């Protein structure tokens, strides 16, 4: 009984203390913000000088640097004031969208934000140099907020980069496996570039849905443009051929390079069910034969 | 054992039987389907069987083995079987799990299946109905 009571008392004491701290912090931050607003021009100029000294943002003109630093400074102070990083997050994403294409690196941006943090911290040292206890409390309030800002900016930058990369990956994926109808019920699927597991899977999905959409009976897969094939991808290709057969389409594979042919036989992929023909032209001719097309050249036409 | 409504409709079209699977079948329903179909092949003297699985988004190993068995039984009863309408996802998962349809022919859809049977049997589905009546 006694023990639990004493624990309760202790907990209450701690709570009171931290509430007191919070209260003090909420008073200190407006004071801090007022200070930063008051010396805005001087501090911003100090910051820009530090940026120049460190040879950061060389890709941008002085006017641009001035404009961007002003808005970053204002955003920074605003975050300190409101405690909400949302606006800054938005701004940082917007900023990165503008400056990433100009070759500004992520670490450059992080260094710049850290420079601003240092410049502002220095000004606080200066202001409170006579009152060490007060300086400590101001820094207690300032540091977590400043670190959170640095984190947010860096995070937004990385997010933006990743978004661009994802977008490009999607674009490549879309482009890389076109399923092309060449004649009624005949599709060709040219494969260009390295086939990895993910692309092979994508290819299968596109091919099978292409067979259904175009009601294809024959598909020619041309792998002239594929530099190499590993065992996983080769087996996947075999499965794709089998799955196409289940959907009523026969598959002809063309353009197996000497290297790929040797690889496939050496690693022992079962290709006995695969219909392979040397080049795309031969494959198309065979496909036309299967579908009953005859193509003949008209006499007297010079093309 | 399984008295509910049939989940597969077996329709007679001339000298062909068209079995359309409406929904995923469990093992006992699959067996019932097999018995119904094999029984009707003899009854109608059918020459060809089309099994349409377009409504299925999954086909397990028992299902695909039963389909293979039905085709073999149909052959013994004098009919050629073609499976039509296998969906892309079903096709690939069947292959990935190592279950094919064996020697049974497959076609894209009902129309293709009819065309295949027509070319193999050289008997028109229409002819059976039009000239000989019911």
CATH fold node name of the largest domain in chain A: Globin-like
Class inferred from helices and paired strands of chain A:
alpha/beta
Overall pLDDT level of chain B: 84
Oligomer designation: heterodimer
Main β sheet profile of chain A: 5 strands, mixed
Q: What count of helical segments of chain B does DSSP give?
A: 5
Termini separation of chain B (Å)? 32 Å
- Count of DSSP strands of chain B: 5
> In this structure, how is the largest beta sheet of chain B organized?
5 strands, mixed
End-to-end gap of chain A: 105 Å
Description:
By secondary structure, chain A is an alpha/beta fold. Chain A folds into two domains: 162 residues, Globin-like; 112 residues, 2-Layer Sandwich (Transcription Regulator spoIIAA), CATH 3.30.750.24. In chain A, 69% of the residues lie in helices and 9% in strands. Chain A contains ten helices and five strands; from the N terminus they run H-H-H-H-H-H-E-E-H-E-H-E-H-E-H. Chain A has a five-stranded mixed β-sheet, with helices on both faces. In chain A, strand 3, helix 8 and strand 4 form a beta-alpha-beta unit. In chain A, 28% of the residues are buried. The C terminus of chain B is likely disordered. In chain B, 47% of the residues lie in helices and 19% in strands. With 134 residues, chain B is of the alpha/beta class. In chain B, helix 1 runs parallel beside helix 2. Chain B has five helices and five strands; from the N terminus they run ββαβαβαβαα. The chains are: A alpha/beta (303), B alpha/beta (134). Chains A and B meet through helix 7 and helix 8 of A and helix 3 of B.
Condensed summary:
The complex is a heterodimer of chains A (303) and B (134). Chain A is α/β, with parallel strands linked by helices. Chain A has helices at 2-38, 40-53, 62-82, 86-99, 106-127, 132-176, 197-214, 231-246, 258-267, 280-291, and strands at residues 180-183, 186-192, 218-225, 250-254, 275-277.
